[in-house]
Fold this protein.
Amino acid sequence: LWHFRDTDFAQVAESMGAFGLTVRKAQDFEGALEKALASGRPAVINVVTEMEALAPAGVTQPAPPAGRAEE
């Protein structure tokens, strides 16, 4: 796994005139997204995660046949 320095990307965004904020809890993401969209500026949401956390298993659906849109 790659390990990066702790960079506050929200602060970097703010320094360039964009809207930036940091989220540390999954339940806070929706509110952060709403604020970012309402800001009227380019936005960065810096999401802090645990390096050892595993993503939940996703639900996948087969792709529709080529040339045919999903109904």
